[in-house]
Design a protein that fits this description.
The chain is an alpha+beta fold. The protein contains 4 helices and 8 strands; from the N terminus they run H-H-H-E-E-E-E-H-E-E-E-E. A 4-stranded antiparallel sheet has the order 1-2-3-4, covered by helices on one side. Strand 1 and strand 2 form a beta hairpin. Helix 1 (2-14) runs antiparallel to helix 2 and helix 1 (2-14) packs antiparallel against helix 4 (130-152). The protein starts with a helix and ends in a 6-residue tail after the last strand.
Length: 215
Amino acid sequence: MRSFTLISTLILVILSAACTSTGDDVTSPALPNLLNEENDLDGFTRECRASMRTIGSACVIYCASNSYYPSDLEALGEPYSEMTCPECGLSYELKGDQEHFALNCPLQGIPNHGSIIDGVASWQPGPGNEENACRATMRTIASQAVIFFAYHDRYPNNLEEMGMAGVVCPSCEFTYIISPVDASGNPSFSVWCPLPFDPNHGCIIDGIVSWLEDE
């Protein structure tokens, strides 16, 4: 129970996921990303995507506890089963099974506010925003590591173990630096941007990001 509480807390701290592709053997989905450029969106879109991120993170926590994803919003229970798109007032469309989940905005018309498929959000960072893209990717790696821990009782030693081989910083195209232990050898997950400049895009240590959230 203590391990699951820690995992759930770290997932909620990370709460976001990156818009990066992952391999077919990923242990679990990433959480959807939270990007500063969304401040330029209309209120309905921003609020709807925030709600979908919340539901997406709940799906990951549900999977960590049950080893499968919720079949629908009702399986998640309140308050998720009561959440609706702020523009149309309809319930979100969620389908899940043993290995996958799909969450869609119910707004009729194209485009709507987007979707989250296996943790990957349909909306992408703005062009040229490599810092946000890198930080979103590090959030994905960190959230993947937490779920990996839930299944294996240890953190991954490398990106390959999470099915994320080849994931690189968009600015330097170097592989991210990760560690499954702290300086004392205790279980502790950290991921660093490999950009060889100071400052680089930052790091995440045990779910805590190095950058200010309003940057």
